[in-house]
Write a structure and sequence with these properties.
Helices cover 52% and strands 11% of the residues. Strand 4, helix 2 and strand 5 form a beta-alpha-beta unit. The longest helix has 33 residues. It folds into three domains: 102 residues, Nucleotidyltransferase, domain 5; 92 residues, no CATH class; 142 residues, no CATH class. The strands form two sheets. The protein has a five-stranded mixed sheet with strand order 3-2-1-4-5. A two-stranded antiparallel ribbon has the order 6-7. By secondary structure, it is α/β, with parallel strands linked by helices. Helix 8 packs antiparallel against helix 10.
Length: 360
């Protein structure tokens, strides 16, 4: 509940910060255009009649301003941009109007606050996203190389691609045209470089997962099929504080709930919303495919179980059985696999939540 005297909205950009302060006692509005230097912003806030509450939208500038403001006796709120209320007839958008609009919404408690990660959590999240970007780059590099070969009628038929045998076959390729040879060398070198980078990032993530504040969550999540160290660590750092959710609400956070447009007696559901954390959603969808196969306690799964508590192992076993049962139900109803997998992924998110908040 808003209890401060001054409500401040900040429209933050890379090269400027537009501020609007609303004094709820006198009704006075103070506006200013500041530099992005946090010291200037903090100094301007210190001159306002207190107590003061500040709000600004989450964006590419990160949370440095939040941490600087939190060091002074000022309440700071980072707002979810997608949840901001905007009048339908308001067709004029300026930095000044946005800042004043934020100040008024904060005054009436009509903002949705996002959870700000700690410095360590944000660094771990950056590492996971760097690995995600590297994975996408490697996929594109491999596609470029394989499609170059396909255009020249060179097709590998010796088994699975991108193995040691396949790499040896790539090294044996020769081209008479010097331009084609240069192109092949460039694409192949990019594949090798990106693969080496992915290996280094994997090693750093595995080391951090074994000894950090996320270790307990990672080991408990590993009791589920399809969730090894990299996936578990990615979910742990992307979700952060699991206690914000319940088993029913976490699916909406990762955008796995169906959209809906209902009125009166009519109820129409559409595709999933795909809102919220896209990286966590992709991890869950990929992990859900593993539950389509018959449930067996493989050595890989058993080794992960040895790192978790008996309660987590029992919960993971129940989740694995339930999720495979859901797949069987969808198969019996002749559901499309991609549709069934999304439904399983939504339920998998709930099982992950139950393991993450499990009291051992």
């Amino acid at each position: 509940m808003f209890s401060e005297r001054t409500s401040v909205g900040l429209d933050v950009h890379a090269r400027s910060v537009v501020a609007a302060a609303l004094d709820t006692v006198t009704g006075e509005v103070v506006e200013a255009r500041l530099s992005p230097d946090v010291r200037e912003v903090v100094g301007w806030l210190a001159r306002l009649p207190g107590p003061v509450a500040v709000a600004y939208e989450a964006g590419p500038t990160g949370f440095g301003l939040f941490r600087a403001i939190s060091g002074m006796p000022v309440r700071c709120v980072v707002v979810a941009p997608s949840k901001l209320l905007r009048p339908a007839g308001d067709r004029v958008k300026t930095d000044r109007r946005d800042a004043l609009h934020l100040a008024r919404l904060l005054r009436t408690d009509q903002v949705v606050e996002v959870t700000v990660p700690s410095v360590e959590q944000e660094a771990a999240r950056d590492l996971v996203r760097a690995r995600e970007a590297c994975r996408a780059d490697l996929m594109r590099a491999r596609h470029r190389l394989s499609k170059l070969l396909l255009r020249h009628g060179v097709v590998y038929s010796g088994g699975a691609a991108w193995t040691v045998v396949h790499d040896r076959w790539l090294q044996q390729q020769r081209f008479d045209n010097p331009q084609t040879r240069a192109t092949f060398d460039a694409y192949y070198d990019q594949v090798l470089t990106t693969t080496a980078l992915r290996t280094r990032l994997n090693a750093q993530i595995e080391a951090l997962a074994a000894d950090s504040e996320f270790t307990g969550v990672v080991r408990r999540l590993g009791c589920l099929r399809g969730i090894a160290t990299l996936t578990a660590f990615g979910l742990a750092v992307e979700i952060g504080d699991w206690t914000r959710f319940t088993g029913n609400t976490i699916g909406a956070f990762v955008g796995l709930t169906p959209s809906e447009s209902s009125t009166g007696a009519s109820r129409v559901q559409g595709p999933i919303t795909k809102t919220g954390n896209g990286h966590a959603r992709r991890l869950l969808v990929e992990a859900a495919w593993h539950h389509a196969a018959d449930y067996r306690k493989t050595k890989t799964l058993f080794d992960r179980w040895q790192l978790a508590s008996p309660a987590a192992r029992a919960r993971g076993d129940a989740g694995n059985r339930r999720l495979h049962q859901r797949w069987e139900v969808f198969h019996a109803r002749h559901k499309r696999p991609v549709i069934a997998n999304v439904a399983v992924a939504r339920e998998l998110a709930g099982w992950c939540w139950s393991l993450a908040v499990l009291n051992e």
